[in-house]
Amino acid sequence: MQLFKHLLETILGSYVKKYLKSHPDAKLIAVVGSVGKTSVKSATATVLSEKFTVRHSRGNLNTTLSAPLEILGVDGPKNAKSPLAWLKVFSAAHASIKNSESPDIIIQECGIDCPGEMAIFMRYIQPDIAIITSVAPEHMEFFKNMDTVAHEELSISQVAKKTIFNLHDIDEKYHNLIVGNRVSYGDESADVFLEIKEDYRHWLYCQFKTLCEETSQDINISVLGKHNIRSITGAAAAGLACGMNIEEVAAALTKIRPVSGRMNILRGIRGCTLLDDTYNASPIAMENSLKTLYSISANHKIAVLGDMNELGETSESEHKKIGEICDPKQLELLITVGKMAKKHLAPIAEKNGCKVVSFDTALEAGEFLKNSDIKDTTILFKGSQGGIYLEDAVKELLLDPSDAEKLVRQSQSWMKQIKAG
């Protein structure tokens, strides 16, 4: 099966090279990094769509097999194990190559699970722009240490014409690995930055500036959390790199909305506000989510935190670190979901003085909150997808049941996959 996969990667990569050669005017933007890829991709698509025709990868189709298909604008096979199904895909790829029409810009998210996968992407893409969102603990059962993660993620700069990188979520000791033409984004020390002037409950008032221009723009942005501001700033840097002026970029930034499962604000029962950050979780993302909850002015606050998967030997220590930042002065209640959170996160949080309740499943946590007497409470939901799926807890607390369509993993294919375990 592994040989079949390698063969498919080679064939699909050759199709992408042919496509890009036959459509030389189409710019390719590759979005890579440990966390934040989908948010940056979505924000970048929103910004660039104001001036260009844009095609961007759907959902989390970012693997070595799905990414080339997204670049080609071709659907994957219904049965990935069927050679006949792949022949139909190859036929569609040929048609895409010969099609004279192409978007101005293609934005592709590239995700890696183990060392060597970025090199597979780099065989067939030399992006006009690479956006690097972060270097943080990910899939540590394969990477083992942060140096390996950094070398893997940052290697894309070796083939990119320009690299836009997050100045603050990539340790300074790794910055020398980012080679060639590069632009940083982040706070006021970066080349492109958004300065938060006022922080409200549901939106941010910011000043958008670049070091290369003397002008600035004041804008209102409908997102929550400083880490999400960085995602938007990466999109702003991409807009400028593609030839948009600061006024055009600023206007586009106001149209950005949160992606499902990424700090999306939903109305809950009994006057509660639900912070749906359920898409996935890593240590840095979990910490950012808690900091965002702490920054909000609210009468009562609860955090529902699930296991963080795929951390390998670092899993125990990383869960304990999250327990250490659980603040009893901020949280009236901490709810954990999953074995690792119960075993390692909960005891540390309790030692800090937090009131903690633990459950095995998201549904149990949701039913507990639904049947409790909480009201006028802001509740954060953050956990990994595999085996946790905290959107099931959010669903129990929605004021309007139809808002379930705004949650992640609600398609029939996802429901089938989750049910199969």
TrEMBL record:
Residues 31-238 form the Mur ligase central domain. Pfam families: Mur_ligase_C (PF02875), Mur_ligase_M (PF08245). Residues 261-384 form the Mur ligase C-terminal domain. The keyword ATP-binding applies. Keywords: ATP-binding, Ligase, Nucleotide-binding. The keyword Nucleotide-binding applies. GO terms for molecular function: acid-amino acid ligase activity; ATP binding. It comes from the Bacteria. PANTHER family: UDP-N-ACETYLMURAMOYL-TRIPEPTIDE--D-ALANYL-D-ALANINE LIGASE. This is UDP-N-acetylmuramoyl-tripeptide--D-alanyl-D-alanine ligase. It comes from Candidatus Minimicrobia vallesae.
